Fold Prolyl oligopeptidase family serine peptidase.
Amino acid sequence: MLNRSLCLCLVLAASDPAQAQGPAEKIRPIPPPGVVVPEADRAALQARVEALGRRIDGLRKAPPFRALLPDVEVFAVAVDTALRYGEFFDLKEVAAARSLLEEGEKRAEALGRVEPPWNAATGPIVRGYVSKIDGSIQPYGLVVPKSYRPDSPHRFRLDVWCHGRGETLGEVSFLRQRMTSVGEFAPADAFVLHPYGRFCNANKFAGEVDLFEALDDVRSHYPIDDDRLIMRGFSMGGAAAWQFATHFPGVWAAAAPGAGFAESADFLGVFREGATPPPWYEQTLWRLYDSTGYAGNLFNVPTVAYSGEKDKQKQAADLMARALRELGGQSPLQKLANGILAPELAEDGNIDLVHVIGAGAGHNYTPEARAEINRRLDSIARKGRDPVPAEVDFTTYTLRYNTSSWVQVDGLARHWERARVNAQLCSFFDGSMSMIGNDRLGPDVSTENVTALTLTVPPGYAPFDPRKAFKAQIDGDVVLAPKAGSDRSWTARFRKVDGHWILAGPDEGGLAKRHGLQGPIDDAFYDAFLMVRPTGPALNEPVDAWSKAELALALDRWRKQFRGQARVKDDKDVTEADVADCNLVLWGDPGSNAVLAKVLDRLPVKWDKDRVEIAGATHDAKTHAPILIHPNPLNPRRYVVLNSGFTYREFDDLNNARQTPKLPDFAVVDVAVPATPRGHGKVVQAGFFDESWKPRAEEPRGPARP
């Protein structure tokens, strides 16, 4: 079941994933060091990069050109990055860099004439966008169908293809591939989006955001049918496809994951005999990305899985099939149906995964399997996504992933425990409203571990008479609901108070975990963030030295692993606009960092020269430092983070299944124990804040051994 190969796939390790978890594994840099570029080639490329940069700066001064500038900048950035950081991995890439600069020069010239030919081009092209996270220029590939014309009267299907692992897939290599190849699948009359995914992270964290930012950019240029979006990928991209399908079930018309992994523990062999499992909080945080825990969401996503018969990564689809078979628990609609059906027709609540197997194949598609997958997906795409399904069955473990179609979860009783919503838009099979006494009932909802939710039906889809009031039924509570609008839209917010559901206002206020403000520490790096560097005298030198080293590492790792430049400012230079727009990552201590000192008394930690106190435990401040995430007291709609970038380290770069959060909402580190490629130092305390951002009274446990 475990991958022992050294092929180009989502796991490149010295041996199988289980052994890769062992302490003897050699850490190697990813991306690896590049080759030496002949000085003449380097000088010529550098001169062209600088010249193209000057042309771009000139175009930047003309507002009409700004929207298309990233389509030019991607070429300059790709070559400049490779030169600046020694990331030419093959001398053949020097010629590729010349070609990229030539394309950038042509685009700059055309843009100066207000004649961007790539806007009307078909076939494989490259485009770019400015990321909200760090302001970097990020590339993506796009296959434009031959049938496309700028004045095309209809909206087009779009398939997303997530690429496999490539430790040397720098921007130069990626752009060259995307300019010359349509890829594994290129359906007729359909666009295919190839996100870069911020390099080699299985489309997690900033790599996840990259897909949606690229998709938004495509929508801004082309007529895309949002009801015909299909998620695909293979190997590392297959893992991404499982993740996107299960975590964003309301987005896709269909999903077609190939190979990959679907969770961490089994794939890595974490619980094998003799292994030391990760700490409880790291196990708990597998629930952020493990697709097996979200498998029930495929109820609303038609899915066709693929595996080669002999591929060890068939493990992913096998585990997902098992998770779907073991869903258990019937929805209210199923229970009602079972009450009137013959026993042999009763439903068990489980789903049978369609799993296409490539006969005799290893880590690749067979022609027959490719044709069968296309046949099934083409059929689904013709019908398209149901934008307002009659029934939604949604599972989550965190408010980071809180939406499926017309159902949005706004509050949990406890994060990282399973939460589920089963919602039927109407209480009766034929779509009409049922009657109980004089109550006209609309949506029928059952929940588990949910304390607040919003139901939103877009214009034209509400099946309710706009003249008449009605009631929603939630966990047996009958709640008066607002009427539908004249455009047949409908929105209602509900929250649970003293064990019963009531109608809620638009924002109940108060400090609470909510979507995009729920932790853990890594959550700060899905959105705009600013590293705030200390300039004052530190309280204790050992902690100061540790913090400076961690800041330097965070900046270096952001560039290498997420292919951007983290924004950095001195504490004295932070503005009100920074506080309004960014998550603030505060480095140093209350003596050295003025912003940290300003907010400290409103954070759940006490920190002075002598002690660090959090969640009832006290530590020596001379050798201990807190790490945490919390709503910013200066702007509770944004985070502050103390002394941490994203939390997985160099050891985890070797295996994409290990790229999960390594710290929860808060931790205390003994800096007398040196940091390593596996951790920040010795973690002596760690835990989660509760739903009101207060330390939990008891530690949650990680998942049971699979």
In short: Residues 39-60 form the longest helix (22 residues). Confidence is low (pLDDT under 50) at residues 1-21, 428-438. The chain has 16 helices and 29 strands. The two ends are 14 Å apart (CA to CA).
